[in-house]
């Protein structure tokens, strides 16, 4: 996958909190740091995310996007 955003943090998905519309994801990015992201439930299902997945948080402006 190619993307223009240069602010990318790789990590491991360690927690998933599903709501009716959105999901809160907690990503371990190392050195005892965690990144929190909220994505739609639809995006969560489309990405097929599960605990332990290696993901990349892509940060652009005020949004944090998840890429697999």
Question: Which SSEs are present, and which pair or pack?
Answer:
Blueprint: E1 7-18, E2 22-30, E3 33-40, H1 41-47, E4 54-60, E5 63-67
Antiparallel strand pairs: 1-2, 1-4, 2-3, 4-5
What would you note in describing this structure?
This protein is mainly beta. It has a single domain (7-67), classed as Beta Barrel (OB fold (Dihydrolipoamide Acetyltransferase, E2P)), CATH 2.40.50.100. Helices cover 10% and strands 60% of the residues. The protein is built from one helix and five strands; from the N terminus they run βββαββ. The chain has one helix spanning 41-47; strands at 7-18, 22-30, 33-40, 54-60, 63-67. It has a five-stranded antiparallel beta sheet with strand order 3-2-1-4-5. A hairpin with a 2-residue loop joins strand 4 (54-60) and strand 5 (63-67). The protein is globular and about 30 Å long. The chain starts with 6 loop residues before the first strand and ends with a strand. The mean pLDDT is 92.
